[in-house]
């Protein structure tokens, strides 16, 4: 970090040093990339802004300029990543007052949201058009994620030794580094290491499919894999089935939503998905939970009316 009292210290340089000192090696690569992107935008929008000149007006102007090309939520993320560094600068006496206080977050109107998940009828139509041959292909991956709710990286990392067909169980203990150069990597968090029960039909299908496959090699991945490739296959299948086009991650949402609508508890869904807590599940599937609550209210009213 630059020494205190350096009136020539640029805010963008301070932020770069702050990332290096406090974030490098302490956060996941995907999160680090977000900080680097914020760093790039900061140099683009305010290359000459000195740290000592960073007051509320200067900060609001910076946020406003970023918001011109970004949605409000993206602008909020930008604000939060800058704020961490700024508060440290205040604590270190480099800035007299917190310039982020009462900042107004603006942004472009959000784009029309694409469908994130399918309903049960749509999922059935999708599964009907999958080309499930005698050898592993991306259609088999689509089926597996739809029926297990695994993350894309978790499904790519599966090996035959992860399947226990006698107990109808699948062990998730690693991921595939598809955003890098490939290879096995640890799971997202400790809660992601889990056992996922399999339905009997999936057991029969995969036991046949993997009869002669190497026990410790990935079923689906070999080196660099692009999720855009699999999303392209899924998009074509959705179009064939005449249903909304969703992403491969949307299959995970579909899996969870169908279970919740079927009456499976939030706790069980959270464990199956490998969420760190039920709070994550509740936030992610709030729309489903609210719809279920509305159904519960109708059921309560019908039940009470029947008592008359």
Characterization of this structure:
The protein contains 13 helices and 5 strands. By secondary structure, the chain is mostly helical. A hairpin with a 4-residue loop joins strand 1 and strand 2.
Note the topology:
Blueprint: H1 11-22, H2 29-45, H3 56-67, H4 72-91, H5 120-129, H6 138-148, H7 152-156, E1 163-164, E2 169-172, E3 175-176, E4 184-185, E5 194-197, H8 200-209, H9 227-241, H10 248-261, H11 266-273, H12 278-284, H13 286-305
Antiparallel strand pairs: 1-2, 2-5, 3-4
Separation of the first and last Cα atoms: 74 Å
Task: Please state the structural category.
Answer: mainly alpha
**Number of DSSP strands?**
5
Gyration radius (Cα, Å) is: 24 Å
- β-sheet strand percentage: under 5%
Task: Kindly state the percentage of residues in helix.
Answer: 40-55%
In DSSP terms (H or I, runs of 4 or more residues), the helix count works out at 13
Strand order of the largest sheet: 1-2-5
Largest sheet: 3 strands, antiparallel
Principal-axes geometry comes out as globular
pLDDT average, as an integer?
90
Order of helices and strands: HHHHHHHEEEEEHHHHHH
Q: Spans with pLDDT under 50 lasting ≥5 residues? A: none
């Amino acid at each position: 970090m630059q020494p205190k009292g350096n009136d020539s210290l640029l805010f963008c340089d301070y932020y770069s040093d702050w990332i290096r000192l406090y974030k490098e090696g302490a956060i996941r690569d995907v999160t680090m990339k977000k900080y680097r992107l914020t760093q790039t935008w900061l140099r683009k929008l305010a290359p000459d802004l000195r740290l000592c000149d960073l007051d509320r007006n200067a900060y609001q102007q910076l946020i406003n300029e970023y918001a011109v090309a970004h949605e409000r939520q993206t602008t909020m993320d930008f604000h939060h990543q800058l704020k961490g560094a700024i508060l440290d600068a205040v604590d270190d006496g480099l800035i007299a007052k917190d310039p982020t206080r009462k900042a107004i977050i603006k942004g472009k109107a959000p784009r029309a949201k694409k469908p994130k998940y399918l309903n049960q009828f749509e999922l059935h139509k999708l599964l009907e058009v999958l080309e499930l041959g005698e050898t592993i292909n991306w259609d088999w991956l689509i089926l597996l994620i739809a029926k297990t709710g695994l993350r894309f990286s978790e499904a790519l990392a599966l090996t035959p030794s992860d399947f226990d067909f006698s107990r109808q169980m699948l062990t998730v203990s690693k991921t595939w580094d598809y955003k890098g150069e490939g290879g096995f990597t640890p799971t997202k968090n400790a809660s992601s290491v889990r056992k996922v029960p399999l339905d009997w039909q999936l057991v029969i299908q995969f036991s046949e499919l993997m009869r002669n496959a190497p026990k410790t090699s990935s079923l689906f991945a070999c080196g660099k894999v692009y999720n855009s490739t699999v999303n392209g296959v899924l998009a074509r299948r959705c179009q064939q089935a005449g249903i909304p086009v969703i992403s491969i991650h949307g299959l995970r949402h579909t899996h969870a939503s169908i279970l919740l609508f079927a009456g499976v508890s939030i706790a069980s869904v959270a464990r199956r998905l490998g969420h760190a807590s039920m709070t994550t599940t509740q936030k992610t599937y709030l729309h489903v939970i609210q719809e279920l609550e509305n159904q519960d209210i109708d059921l309560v009213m019908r039940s009470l009316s029947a008592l008359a």
